[in-house]
Amino acid sequence: MINFTEIFLVKKEIINQSALMFLEYGTKSVTMDDIAERMHISKKTIYSHFEDKPSLVRAAVFQIFDQVKSQIFKIQDESENSIIAIYEIKKIAVQVLAKKDSSVQYQLQKYYPKIHDELREMELDTLGASFEKSINKGIEKGLFRASIDPQFITRIYFNGFAGIRNIKLFSPKDYKIDQLIDQYIDYHLRAIVTSKGLSFLKSYNSNKNHEN
Question: Which residues lie below 8 Å from residue 192, measured CB to CB, with a gap of 6+?
Fold first, then answer.
């Protein structure tokens, strides 16, 4: 009798281990042989679950995205300060993006552009509502101007964030992603904060710089 539970668990573990390796070494650098060796299984077993490497890359990358999404939702739901929430989310982004030419971000754009484009299209659809809610919370707290359109600001923010991750515009060899994100967040927030929000932003950045 076919044990479907065991088949499901094996497939899940292949995705888990692949995701960990892709985060560490990049999607291009890790081969199917590397994954099989790490898991102590045959490459044939991997191919019994995934037609080819791109299909495995897609499954692993979307699992990473789901994990990041859950962390982002948690921060936005629990944080009472929308400015702090943006910077906390930035820390999560840097963990995934900061490894220059071995990062998942870099290698997806370069070697798996279709998967990369699919992922980018999902970002606004899955994260947009939560981000817009955080914008509204910032307005209620007096940190963001009441005159702004939260939906418009959300779309502008996501579009700009996608732009700074475009390796054709900002090559990882010339730009550090953590510094790029910091500059973009500061640029974004200064466009929408109130005087109260600006005062908090300056104080927050000053304290952050002293800690570093």
Answer: 135, 138, 144, 145, 148, 153
